[in-house]
Amino acid sequence: MKLIIERAALLKGLSHVQSVVERRNTIPILSNILLRADGGALRLTATDMDLEIVESVPAEIQAAGGTTAPAHTLYDIVRKLPDGSQVEIETNPDGGSLTLRAGRSNFRLGCLPVEDFPSMAGGDLSHRFTIAAGDLRVMIDRTKFAISTEETRYYLNGIYLHAATADTVPVLRAVATDGHRLARVEMPLPDGADAIPGVIVPRKTVMELRKLLDESGETVEVQLSETKTRFTLPGAAGDGVVLTSKLIDGTFPEYERVIPSGNDKILEVDAKEFAKAVDRVSTISTEKSRAVKLTIENGSLTLSANSAEQGSATEEIEVNYEASKIEIGFNSRYLLDITQQIEGDGARFAMADAGSPTIVRDTADSSALYVLMPMRV
């Protein structure tokens, strides 16, 4: 294998694939990325056995072939090369190493056999649909904060993606919850997605996909089976990225049952003003719970926090509220996570009492719904 490639193109591809590679691996080949040179492109592949990413980048191929190289070392080398440099990569006759040259820099890296590199066969990904990259980005951004990190409840360690019906309209719905808060976002159902199975896309896959969406084209092709999913993101220069992932083998809870329907105490606030007030008042609360109490009555909201070590804080803001007085406490971090998803000016809180779940929505956008459990304060 021998090729010449622009540093910028190689760096972009490596930055995407190397992030899949774990820093500590008991299986040596999983620390490497697979490089295949063919036609007019260099194809880079990385996997952790649950997630595989393949990216093609334009290159001048002088001799086709393939090898594997240490992912993080190769990325660090290319990252430190001068801007605008041409990188020459060539496998050595011994088969166990490659040489990388750029200007006066010369590196020799140990390689492992291509045959040892695992392949994630896609299998029969029978469901296929196309979604706008912007829509997929919004669905991820508005739900990923609620993904659970508790490994014992592994079935909550991802985003639940499924087809549903909202007011007789078919929608594609993304849901995430950690037991304390829930995020549900929906969009019109894409053509071909009506029969998809409900699947849980793992947190790591979600985060890697989100990074790629910032640099992708206008649309993303999604393929699904009950055990795997594949996202194909075309690039601007005829290149592109393919992300293949196993799905979480578990049953997502019946989330509709935790979304209350009879909350009649309606509070409307300026979302940005409210978030800033929560942030200021929570400075005084203890680090573990970060509790903030909301006292709401007669068009005013008083936020308060107390700490035995730090003291106390209160702040009052004007709101729209006409129901009876209520005092309710929340984890301030969770409140801020939700209000950061609200792009419009107003947030609407629907409450029942101090011990029941609260619904939060963007007053200008009905596609997203958030449920937040209160806490004792």
TrEMBL record:
Domain named DNA polymerase III beta sliding clamp central: residues: 133-254
InterPro entries: DNA_clamp_sf (IPR046938), DNA_polIII_beta (IPR001001), DNA_polIII_beta_C (IPR022635), DNA_polIII_beta_cen (IPR022637), DNA_polIII_beta_N (IPR022634)
Function: Confers DNA tethering and processivity to DNA polymerases and other proteins. Acts as a clamp, forming a ring around DNA (a reaction catalyzed by the clamp-loading complex) which diffuses in an ATP-independent manner freely and bidirectionally along dsDNA. Initially characterized for its ability to contact the catalytic subunit of DNA polymerase III (Pol III), a complex, multichain enzyme responsible for most of the replicative synthesis in bacteria; Pol III exhibits 3'-5' exonuclease proofreading activity.
Assembly information from the UniProt record: Forms a ring-shaped head-to-tail homodimer around DNA.
NCBIfam families registered for this protein in UniProt: dnan (TIGR00663)
The family this protein is said to belong to: Belongs to the beta sliding clamp family.
Name of the protein: Beta sliding clamp
